[in-house]
User: Fold this.
Amino acid sequence: MIKIFILLLLTTALFASKVETYRWSSGDSYLSFLQKNKLPLKSLYYDLDKDEQELTEEILYGVRYQILKTDSGEITQLLIPINDELQVHIYKLKGEFLFEIIPIISETKTESLLLKIKNSPYLDIIKETGYANLAHIFIASFKKSLDFKKDSRENDTLVMLYEQKYRLGKPFSMPLLKSAMIEMKGKKHYMYLSDNGKYYNELGAELEEFLLAKPIGNARVSSLFTLRRFHPILKKYRAHLGVDYGAPIGTPILASGNGRVIYAGFTRGYGNVTRIQHDNNYQTLYAHQSSFKKGITKGKSVKKGEVIGFVGNTGLSTGPHLHFGLYRSAQAINPLSVIQLVVKKLSNKERNEFLKLKSTNDKAIAQILKNNKKFPRISNFDSVCYFFNEKCEASPIQNQ
Ligand SMILES: [Zn+2]
Assistant:
């Protein structure tokens, strides 16, 4: 693995140290990572509470992490991102290694894309930005209303506004598409991201209709999704990257959408766990199962509502429940935001907020078109294959 050395002061207390950046490799579990680096399993894993142990399962393949070493090569600190918000911080104090979860300091910048279609909107967006998720979201959002194959022409104009996070001066995580416009056959079509996480067109109609079925019949939610919260008593940062449903052992678990099984196996934190890949870069996760339904193995196609396994108490679980996770472009999002029975129309208040959002974005897009210039992009990308892309391993971090 290629190492890069970046000039950075992680702490003022240390001197003659250097920071090395690596990518989390696909075969690594947090435990095997500790073993490989000869770090103490007891204080850095077995002594942690259940929530912390569960979070270490969320470290994503391909994510970049930092190791601070002394001149003699001894590890003194580690920073490993769990998601956009939180990271594992391992540090040495008085000869002992300690573990904590701390917020990620990142800076968000709005960037833009302006292009004339050459091949197709999908390919051109990826080629220009290096991010497949921007292309996926754009195409998925317009899937119902526009026919790119039929109506898209060379030289059609496409504009996108998106937010990019930077951590330690480098692009970090997936960009978030805020707004886009494509002009086809002389007509402009818009999409806007609302605060509720959904995309709307210029008329305020919801675009993307990715809806999941509840993954379990009659069950109550016993723990909600939180991306990041500070526990006031424990004085610790926490996250719960899924929804827990309490249910008796053996209760059937249902695939919440059509898809393909990409993992069905055992991990220490999540026990028997199944991951299903859905269209448009969505993934779902079903943890702590007592057993898998026969035939539910990697590569198997499943239908929405099909039984895939049974509720259990395996892995780090304090009682029978289903931990249900949802990921969009490898980012954990709140499953309850897409489990819906009815599509609701915008209320008056939401409608006014939408009009404000539309006007701000329209102005920015009009400005880009007028100046024929996109916002400057800050730095070199290396996140093309950020997560879950088989090509990722073959593309090492470039020396800077
Ligand atoms: Zn859970």
Summary: Confidence is low (pLDDT under 50) at residues 1-15, 378-400. The first strand starts at residue 4 and ends at 5. The CA atoms of residues 181 and 187 lie 10 Å apart. The radius of gyration is 22 Å.
